[in-house]
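agent> Task received from the user: take the single chain below, predict its 3D structure, and emit structure tokens. No templates, no multimer pairing.
agent> Plan: (1) validate residues, (2) run structure prediction, (3) serialize to tokens, (4) report one or two observations.
agent> Step 1 OK, no nonstandard residues flagged.
tool_call: predict_structure(input=
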Amino acid sequence: MLATVLLQASVLGAGLGKLGATIGAGLAVIGAGIGIGKIGGSAMESMARQPSSANDIRTSMLIIAALVEAVSLFAIVVCFLAM
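)
tool_result: status=success, residues=83
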């Protein structure tokens, strides 16, 4: 009887682990989308205010967006490994 209870608890725990991993992956994607959107919006606003430094701002924007995307991809991989 104890073995069946432990087996059912382990199956339930695995289901909750998969649910947590999928929610975590979804939150990582949503967070990355919001972050890259804010970076792009701020860069466009600053380019409009000072057009002479548009190239420097664009370069910084692309580097920061790539870093945000890399962190979110790492979070997604970690979540899928937890499954």
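agent> Step 4: summary for the user.
The CA atoms of residues 25 and 59 lie 28 Å apart.
agent> Done.
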